[in-house]
Design a protein that fits this description.
By secondary structure, the chain is α+β, with helices and mostly antiparallel strands. Helices cover 57% and strands 7% of the residues. Among the domains are: 98 residues, Roll (PH-domain like); 105 residues, no CATH class. A hairpin with a 3-residue loop joins β5 and β6. α5 runs antiparallel to α6, α28 crosses α29 and α29 packs parallel to α31. It starts with 6 loop residues before the first strand and ends in an 11-residue tail after the last helix. InterPro entries: ARM-like, ARM-type_fold, EVH1_PP4R3, P4R3-like_central_dom, PH-like_dom_sf, PP4R3-like. Belongs to the SMEK family.
């Protein structure tokens, strides 16, 4: 027994009625003690693991399809299939199954599946009724045959019996011969009956019948029968379309006749399913599941046969990239590759992986780089579809190719730049192609699919490459349309119509919106690289020019870009916004919008609400200091009053911190003298503690009197720093004195006064909390005076 003969793929049918590939291995039939019966075993060819262990049950209905498939159901909604590499291996296993069940291997089905509901009804049917008795195949009996075929569709057992009868008597070919006779004599009634018969036979859902009906000598007659729908006044001309309009184009001659026949058959069967047959009703939706499987396995076989023909594919890509190839020929080649990739979607993940690796080795990406830059719109559209298949399959493969391109070439010929330029130059008024390409670019620059385990440096290297070689191409239209912003500052508020940097062109506005959407994605996911780029190009200022656009969706895109930046709560960005006064165009847009309650109004208010809720102090201070007069009249929301309230609270906190540490120089000197006078016995801790207790009231009284005098004399004159003289350090204050922590609180606050005089309005709540915590540890609540100027 050769290995290839028993080589199989194991498939299971999923909930979407699609076949899932469970792996490739070698099948055998042996007795399994645990299952107590002869079983089918499939062991994986990669590691020998068990892919399938299925007992051949006497009551299971096995079907043989297309000479190399065995299909069966093991439980409710659990269908299995073995796809053999060779017909001989399929025949061997089929004979083994039939031997176990005691069936004739000449048939393509081993059982008559019986519904539980019908089991009792047919329990006592004698053996002689194994097949349905078909009327003679004559014109006069067509109505009777049509009634019979239609009547069995509701009964699974009768469908099985009718299918067996049609197969054993060669009835299908007789019916198709009768069709030719009826058409010659224009027997419309007979043709209408044949339509019902052929449609009903298709709904029997039997692969063995499909093999006969879709063979080269029968399929066009089947299509002919389906032209004569009784509901139509005139028959459809499907055969004329298939033979004359639909042309089979061989971009490279296919020498394998079996492959050619398979391609023709698949196209015609797909046409029958998609075009000719009416959409199945809810009760008929499973009637054509086998037809779907038939097409699926055909496509798998076509892709596999083409993939194995290395000479054919090599020639395809050679001609695709050859400068001498005519445009019409290249268009056909690109369309072939597109169709080839579409067929590959029927493959399972591991097979699709091998498929795209084959294309990559053959040079699919360099070929795309050439054809995507061509002037032919059809070629570019097909190339975009191919590129989308590649990016969807493996973004890393595309990124790896892009980074390996020679850097000495012009940036314009880099694949990603070709894609960006195609996006920018999309001639479609609705920018359908640009939207598709923008989605692909976002996938390529998304760090989420840059696998660190595969290549730890992929993210860093690719993003550095993208921002160095590609970002300027992406932002070029944006920068070009906002280049005259400096001149526009002289324009009056509300004069957006004459603003030269906000073109009225809807298509340009749509393109800028797409670019902004991509840049907003970068702000969220790229942090360092996009931050550097925004700062170097002053990009946010240029983007906010678009707040003047008459297209509200574009103004909203610009606002969303700024909102994402502020949402990061990055002080680096905040300082950039404050320094550039970049809230001005946003506030102007809010004021220009007037009393209109629209999305722009809500989005701008949400931006300021976020700043208020998150208490971004630097931005709150900037907004209130510079724009509150313009905003205080807006009272239908409390956002701006809330910002003012936050501002005042912070100002009060800052003032309290300043006042808490401010001391008059003279009172501090006198107080310190008292300190040192009372601290002569510093070596004895207990004596110091006792003296402090006795003298505290006197010292504190003198201190407060001195403080009041100093405050009255210095109020309004030198309150900003003259009282901040720092007393000289004294060796009398020792860290070794354990009791000193509670008595050193008076002179210490003088030290930070110089620092607080330089502190701006902005403070961070964490700093204040830490300082207060330290004060609580170092000072007794009873002995901590809170001074006020």
């Amino acid at each position: 027994m050769s290995d290839t003969r028993r080589r199989v793929k194991v498939y299971t049918l999923n909930e979407d009625r699609q076949w899932d590939d469970r792996g490739t291995g070698h099948v055998s039939s042996t007795f399994v003690e645990r299952l107590r019966g002869i079983s089918l075993l499939v062991r994986a060819e990669s590691d020998g693991s068990l892919l399938l262990e299925s007992k051949i049950s006497p009551n299971t209905a096995y079907q043989k399809q297309q000479d190399t498939l065995i299909v069966w159901s093991e439980a409710d909604n659990y269908d299995l299939a073995l796809s053999f590499q060779e017909k001989a291996g399929c025949d061997e296993i089929w004979e083994r199954i039939c031997q176990v069940q005691g069936r004739d291997p000449a048939l393509d089905i081993t059982q008559d599946p019986i519904d539980e509901s019908e089991e009792e009804r047919f329990e006592e049917i004698p053996e002689t009724s194994h097949l349905v008795e078909l009327p003679p195949c004559e014109q006069s009996r067509l109505e009777e045959i049509a009634d019979l075929v239609t009547s069995v569709l509701s009964s699974p057992i009768r469908r099985e019996k009718l299918a067996l009868a049609l197969m054993t008597e060669g009835y299908i070919k007789k019916l198709l011969g009768l069709f030719r006779v009826c058409e010659e004599v224009d027997n419309r009634e007979g043709l209408h009956h044949l339509y019902e018969i052929v449609r009903g036979v298709l709904f029997l859902n039997k692969a063995a019948l499909f093999e006969v009906m879709f063979s080269d000598d029968c399929i066009m007659d089947v299509v002919g029968c389906l032209e004569y729908d009784p509901a139509l006044v005139q028959p459809k001309r499907h055969r004329e379309f298939l033979t004359k309009t639909a042309k089979f184009k061989e971009v490279i001659p296919i020498t394998d006749s079996e492959l050619r026949q398979k391609i023709h058959q698949t196209y015609r069967v797909q046409y029958i399913q998609d075009i000719i047959l009416p959409t199945p009703s809810v009760f008929e939706e499973n009637f054509l599941s086998t037809l779907t499987s038939f097409i699926f396995f055909n496509k798998v076989e076509i892709v596999s046969m083409l993939q194995e023909d290395e000479k054919f594919l090599t020639e395809v890509f050679a001609q695709l990239t050859d400068d001498a190839t005519e445009d019409s020929k290249r268009r056909e080649l690109v369309n072939f590759v597109k169709e080839f990739c579409a067929f590959s979607q029927t493959l399972q993940p591991q097979n699709r992986d091998a498929f795209f690796k084959t294309l990559a080795n053959l040079g699919i990406l360099p070929a795309l780089e050439i054809v995507m830059g061509m002037d032919d719109l059809q070629v570019r559209a097909a190339a975009t579809d191919i590129f989308s298949y590649l990016v969807e399959f493996s973004p890393s493969m595309v990124r790896e190719f892009v980074m390996q391109e020679p850097q000495q070439t012009d940036d314009d010929v880099l694949l990603i730049n070709v894609v960006i330029k195609q996006m920018i130059c999309d001639s479609d008024p609705e920018l359908g192609g640009a939207v598709q390409l923008m989605g692909l670019l976002r996938t390529l620059i998304d760090p989420e699919n840059m696998l660190a385990s595969t290549n730890k440096t992929e993210k860093t290297e690719f993003l550095s490459f993208f921002y160095k070689y590609c970002m300027h191409v992406l932002t070029a239209p944006l920068l070009a349309n906002t280049a005259h912003d400096k001149n526009s500052k002289d324009l009056q508020e509300g004069s957006t119509k004459v603003n030269p940097v906000c073109p009225d062109n809807f298509q340009t506005a749509q393109l800028l919106a797409l670019i902004l959407e991509l840049l907003t994605f970068c702000v969220e996911h790229h942090t360092y690289h996009i931050k550097t780029y925004i700062m170097n190009k002053d990009l946010l200022r240029r983007v906010l020019v678009l707040m003047n656009s008459k297209h509200t969706f574009l103004a909203l895109c610009a606002l969303r870009f700024m909102r994402r930046i502020i949402g990061l709560k990055d002080e680096y960005y905040n300082r950039y916004i404050i320094k550039g006064n970049l809230f001005e165009p946003v506030i102007n847009a809010l004021l220009d919008n007037g009393t209109r309650y629209n999305l722009l109004n809500s989005a701008i208010i949400e931006l300021f609400e976020f700043i208020k809720v998150e208490d971004i102090k630097s931005l709150i201070a900037h907004i209130v200091d510079n724009f509150y007069k313009a905003l205080e009249s807006i009272e239908y929301v409390q956002t701006f009053k809330g910002l003012k309230g936050r501002y005042e609270q912070e100002k009060d906190r800052q003032s309290q911190r300043l006042n808490r540490y401010r001391r008059d120089a003279r009172s501090l000197d006198e107080d310190e003298e008292l300190w040192f006078n009372d601290d002569d016995d510093d070596d004895d801790g207990e004596a110091v503690e006792k003296r402090m207790g006795d003298d505290f009231s006197d010292s504190y009284g003198k201190y407060m009197e001195a403080k009041k005098g100093a405050a009255n004399g210095a109020n309004g004159a030198n309150n900003n720093g003259k009282a901040a003289a720092i007393p000289p350090a004294s060796p009398a204050v020792t860290p070794n004195n354990s009791s000193a922590s509670s008595v050193k609180t008076v002179p210490l606050p003088a030290t930070p006064v110089v620092k607080t005089a330089l502190v701006g309005l902005v403070d961070y709540p964490d700093d204040e909390d830490e300082e207060e915590d330290e004060e609580e540890e170092d000072q007794s609540p009873r002995k901590r005076p809170r001074l006020s100027s």
